[in-house]
Amino acid sequence: MAGKNPNAPTEETVLAVKHYTDKTFSFSLTRPASFRFRSGEFIMLGLMGEKKPILRAYSIASPSWDEKLDFYSIKVQDGPLTSKLQKIKIGDKVLLGKKPVGTLVLDALLPGKRLFMFSTGTGIAPFASLIKDPDVYENFDEVILTNTCREAGELAYGKELVDSVRNDPLVGEMVGDKLKFITSTTRDDYPVKGRITTLIETGELFDLIEGEPLNPETDRVMICGSMDMTLDTKALMEKAGLQEGSNSNPADFVIEKAFVG
Ligand code: A2P
Which architecture characterizes domain 10-96 according to CATH? Predict the structure, then answer.
């Protein structure tokens, strides 16, 4: 008889589902007692397919002290996983991997004063975990989270998230006025319009936060979005003199592609 694979995903129960737009939804799963992760990491997650599991990388969107695990997902109508995953209901089972990994972690950055978190769309998910982590506020004087979406309705998740962090009994007091949240859209009427790359290049971002332009001496950056967004934002970081870091070689900025499909 074949032995049980110790790395096989576990079956977790859906505790909550919330649909934000026709393109995005969030859900919560039970957390195995042995499941440990660092804020900002991702995990393989999915559903059983006809023959084998369909698993994709998902950033964990809840803090490491939470009893449950939160996720924020795109819905792709013909996506192999999300076409099905978007239909989950409370009580359903979802497969959860055992090995959280990733580079959007404090360990991959050198000490600094300002921490920027640039996200587009569901790329905000890893930052949902990080902005609830007390270490972030212990290590940095200022935390600037940005989320840019095509349409204004897609910004609702981030707005709820930031409100909940500010009112959180555990971290709310530490957050104080250290956390700034900048939102913009690219295809809808909205007070701030433009891609994050444009807001950085024109300096509008720094006007909005009433701060100085990027400075490698003081600034650390985490980036999460589409392939194009991460590459274009990375180029701007390098232009500003920041160097890319990793778990084994911490530096000034780190990047991760948000999962699509
Ligand atoms: P835009 O509407 O101008 O393409 P997507 O859903 O395609 O991932 O886009 C999410 C957000 O990311 C949109 O606001 C989109 O702007 C923006 N975006 C797309 N490509 C880039 C890029 N190369 N650099 C910065 N932002 C981008």
Answer: Beta Barrel (2.40)
Regarding the domain delimited by 106-255, which CATH topology (the fold level of the hierarchy) does it fall under? Rossmann fold (3.40.50)
Residue ranges per domain, the chain?
10-96, 106-255
What count of other Cβ atoms lies within 10 Å of the Cβ of residue 193? 15
pTM above 0.85, yes or no: yes
Alpha carbon of 256 to those of 229, 233, 241: distances in Å? Answer: 10, 11, 19
- Report how far ligand 1's centroid is from the alpha carbon of 62 (Å): 25
235 CB within 6 A, ligand 1: no
With tokens 């778990």, the residue in question is: 247
150 lines ligand 1 (CB under 6 A): yes
Q: What is the pLDDT of residues 15-64, one digit of tens each?
A: 999 999 999 999 999 999 999 999 999 999 999 998 999 999 999 999 99
197 CB under 6 A from ligand 1? yes
